[in-house]
Design a protein that fits this description.
Length: 493
């Protein structure tokens, strides 16, 4: 019999996987005249899924149409994640699968994209013989040249990180989506240097994308019938456009440049005003960079969703300091109070890490009591995984035993489930706005969509259709799902 901890851990992994459609191969409309076949799949964060759409767009101009059959592919690309060791192991297993397929299709070429490519660089070619091409997150525009190298029988590597690449000029093709919700990236990289995190090493320095090109992409999505966009960045709150380049240059720049700069709250307002009939979401916020004017922008615009993903990682000020998070437990709690004061019905979700080096039972209790204070709507919880090259790996001993990390993880997951159930119950008897996304997995007579707060709601289809904003009266609920009936269209949207 499986141990309870394993079952729970699998449930968590599953939730994350379900949420982010891990490893789904993506297919787009065939471009006429294209004869080569590309199989592309993505792991990890939403940004990787968004990047794969940029890659598919670049390769469509090189004669590639996407395929869902690995066996048919001329080129296989895997967009990889390095955030935890397990994420890397998953990719290694996929490479074994490609290897088996290559035996029947020897002409097939294999490229590795994303964070693992950046972390391992040309070492990848030595470690995994199947790999022909290694391409870091800032080098996708070089793919046509790298492909030529590969076709001429040479291995190809480009892992150069950039100070200004934002792919603002590449129109992404929308892969495997529902035609209703889409991601739009607004920043790349991260300057925060949390001591546990590999992202600043794999995705480089933080840079923001020109608001004009963001607006153009959003307007284009609206024309194509999309109803909801999620603005993406590792740390959206530090979005700042003043003409390109690294943010630190701005600090020394002239007042005139300051006067023309656009920050995240302004960007939110720009997008929300340009498309008042579209829902706007954003991810991820960082407590240390989130400013009050962002909260006011959410409160002011009906179409900016009342939901903030606000990772905290730990409830202990001592551990937060060791993680190089720039706030205390009390400052985070004050921010939560502010959110509720300015946006009373705002949902909040967390990311949490158990077993960071030196974490004691007292620190863990601090995490549990912080969770009790906030009562998060959702959460993504992980055991600490030491990542090579990070400050934590270099300076701190990974000294919390695996079994203790796991037990603490189970405890926070249990508590989160309790809080999720509590939050979901608050909707009982209320009527809420739901954007219909697809048919319910469990019942073909029902639609499934999400509330502004990001909670899934299901209800009988009647005459409604995907893409409609519908008012739904909530009659029942499970821990994570609202069950109700439609009472009409939303007047706000
Ligand atoms: N700002 C980013 C965070 C990326 S990592 C974003 O856009 O989401 C996502 C989450 O993974 C982090 O919030 C953290 O909880 C977790 N994580 C990152 N590094 C980790 C590590 N070394 N071990 C365990 N979990 C980690
Ligand atoms: Fe990682 Fe911290 Fe940036 S978690 S992505 S270094 S905000």
């Amino acid at each position: 019999m499986k141990k309870r901890t394993d079952v729970l851990k699998e449930a968590i992994e599953e939730k994350v996987i379900d949420e982010k459609k891990q490893g789904e191969s993506l297919v787009l409309e065939a471009k006429e005249g294209n004869t080569r076949k590309l199989f592309i799949e993505s792991y990890g964060c939403q940004m990787n899924f968004s990047d794969s759409e940029i890659v598919a767009s670049i390769l469509a101009n090189e004669g590639f149409n996407t395929t869902q059959r690995l066996e048919d592919a001329d080129l296989v690309l895997v967009n990889t994640c390095s955030i935890r060791d397990k994420a890397e192991q998953t990719v290694r297993k996929r490479l074994e699968k490609y290897n088996a397929v290559k035996r029947t299709n020897p002409k097939m070429k294999v490229g590795v994209l994303g964070c693992m490519a950046e972390r391992l660089k040309s070492k990848f070619l030595e470690e995994e013989k199947i790999v022909d091409m290694v391409v870091g997150p800032d080098a996708y525009k070089d793919l046509p040249n790298l492909l030529k190298e590969v076709e001429e029988g040479r291995d190809a590597v480009n892992v150069i990180l950039s100070k200004d690449e934002t792919y603002g000029d590449v129109a992404p093709v929308r892969l495997g989506g529902n035609g209703i919700t889409a991601f739009v990236s607004i920043t790349r990289g991260c300057d925060n240097m949390c001591t546990f995190c590999v992202v600043p090493f794999t995705r480089g320095r933080e840079r923001s994308r020109d608001p004009q090109s963001i607006l153009e992409e959003v307007n284009d999505l609206a024309t194509k019938g999309y109803k909801e966009i999620t603005l993406l960045g590792q740390n959206v709150d530090s979005y700042l456009w003043y003409g390109g380049g690294l943010k630190k240059d701005f600090k020394n720049a002239s007042e005139m440049q300051q006067a023309t700069a656009t920050d995240f709250a302004q960007l939110l307002e720009l997008v929300a005003t340009a498309q008042p009939k579209m829902r706007i979401r954003f991810s991820t916020s960082n407590p240390q960079d989130m400013k009050e004017d962002v909260l006011h922008a959410i409160a002011k615009h009906k179409n900016i969703c009342n939901y903030i993903h606000l990772p905290v990682q730990s409830g202990s000020t001592r551990i937060l300091k060791a993680m190089n998070r720039q706030h205390t437990r009390e400052e985070y709690m004050a921010l939560i109070d502010k959110v509720h004061e300015i946006i009373p019905d705002c949902a909040i979700s967390q990311d949490m890490i158990t077993g960071f080096p030196s974490e004691t039972e007292v620190d863990h209790q601090d995490t549990l009591s912080l969770m009790e204070y906030v009562k998060y709507d959702f959460g993504f919880m992980f055991m600490y995984s030491e990542r090579p090259g990070t400050m934590a790996a270099r300076k701190l001993e990974d000294d919390v035993p695996e079994a203790v990390k796991k037990r603490r993880l189970v405890e926070i997951v249990d508590l989160q489930q309790k809080h999720s159930a509590f939050r979901t119950k608050q909707f009982l008897g209320k009527t809420v706005e739901v954007l219909i996304e697809k048919e319910s997995k469990k019942n073909e007579d029902e639609w499934s969509g999400r509330t502004q707060q990001n909670t899934v709601a299901v209800f009988p289809k009647e005459h409604y259709k995907p893409g409609d904003f519908v008012m739904v009266k909530i009659n029942e609920c499970t821990t994570a799902t609202l069950i109700g009936e439609a009472v009409g269209y939303s007047e706000n949207m």
